[in-house]
Specification:
Layout lengths: L22 E5 L4 H4 L8 E5 L8
Parallel strand pairs: 1-2
Length: 56
């Protein structure tokens, strides 16, 4: 999660304080804030599987 982006809402309160990323790597699952506008500053999202499958 790039610094300055709210993980639940994707809000960027101080837009000039957030550096836009080309790629954001997230592990296990995407936080909602990565997928919601205005968090376009995350760039391309790469989800890395770390074995959190839905197995019982």
């Amino acid at each position: 999660m790039p610094s300055g982006i709210h993980p639940d809402t994707g809000e960027v309160p101080e837009a000039d304080a957030v550096l836009p990323a080309d790629v954001t790597v997230t592990f296990g699952a995407c936080k909602v804030g990565l997928l919601r506008a205005p968090a376009e500053v995350v760039g391309r999202i790469e989800l890395v599987d770390i074995g959190l499958g839905l197995e019982p």
